[in-house]
Structure formats: C-alpha cells, structure tokens
Amino acid sequence: MKIIEGIKQEGKPFEIPDCTRDDLPEFFKEMGYRVGVEIGVQRGYYTKSLCEAGLKVYGIDPWLRYDDNLLSLKQYLHDKNYEESKATLAPYDCTLIRKTSMGAIKDFENESLDFVYIDGNHSFKYLTEDIFEWSKKVRKGGVISGHDYINRGPAGYCDVKWVIDAYTMAMKLPKWFILGRKKALSGERADECRSWFWIK
Predict the structure, then answer these.
(1) Domain 2-199 classified CATH 3.40.50.150?
(2) 63 vs 43: CA distance, rounded Å
(3) Residue partners of 53: CB distance under 8 A and separation at least 6
(4) Where do the structural domains in the chain lie, given as residue ranges?
(5) Which H or E run contains 140?
(6) Whole-angstrom Cα distance, residue 4 to residue 199?
(7) Average pLDDT over residues 111-134
(8) Name one Pfam family in it (predicted).
C-alpha cells in the first residue's frame, strides 16, 4: 500500500523514502501481478521474498565467472550459490534458469511478464542491455525494476545510477521511482543500495 500511495505523488524521479525493495513483493501482489523474472539470483534470498508473496518467479543467473565482470566470484563459489538457490527455492513456484540474461531472453514471449527485477551484472553495457531487452517482455501496466541505484567503484563495477539516469532521459519516461533514503535521518540509516522502478 505504501508504494501505491507513493506513485500517486508528483516528481520525476519520485523518491519513496519509507519503502525499500522489501516492499516490492507486496506491491506486485496488490497490483494483481502473478508472474515475473529476477535477473541475478545469486543465493536466492530475494527470489524467496518474491515467491513468498505468491508470485511465480523465473530466476535467471548463469552462476558463471567471466572476466569482464568486476564483481564476479570464483567459479566454485558460483556453483555453491547455485546449489544453495536450488535448496532455498525448492518449496516455491520458482523456475531457475542457468543462463546469461541474453541467453534466457529468447525463452520468453514479448509482453508475457508482469514484472522484471534486474540485479545482475551492474556494468553499463550489461545493465543497459538488460533494461532495453527485458522491457519488451513486460506487458503494458507491468513493472521494470532493479537494485543498486548507485555508482560505485571504477567504471564497470557498479554503473547503475548512470544507466538509469541516461535510460529514463533518453526514453523520455514521464515518471519513475526510487525506493529508500539517500540520506539518513536522525536515528535511521541511509539506504545505500536503493531500488528503482517504472510502470510500463
């Protein structure tokens, strides 16, 4: 409910400071969404939150080390995370797809999803490609969303804020949203890794 109230406010982008990505699963449920994709599963913790809201989730992650990903783990850790994800998500309506984001995109029809949550490779090239291509898979009225609205480290490490700012400007999106607080209030902490979304 808090996110639904927030999206009625004015501003571009509009920040919804009292909500985080932990509020997104309930928001998706309130919007009547049933099926979506998470790009970047890692150990399946956030995927589980989506599933616990009663959503059908396709979790896409190659669990693969590749050299141009500055955040990439050693391969044995990717394999360990994949096994942990399978165990964590086994009780839920979740299908894990061990492919790259662009390798899995052909598995989905255009406008067949209610939402996509992007939390994969955070470098400029890969994130831009994810947003551009997966947006086609989301129906009108659905949500394109993701994690880590921040620039951090050297270029190619975490370029999310640059990508989102450039994409929303280039596509002339009339309104989009950021969840969480950029600056801490008294007695609270800032949400460094805020989430972002817009409604298609």
Answers:
(1) yes
(2) 10
(3) 25, 26, 28, 29
(4) 2-199
(5) strand 138-146
(6) 12
(7) 96
(8) Methyltransf_24
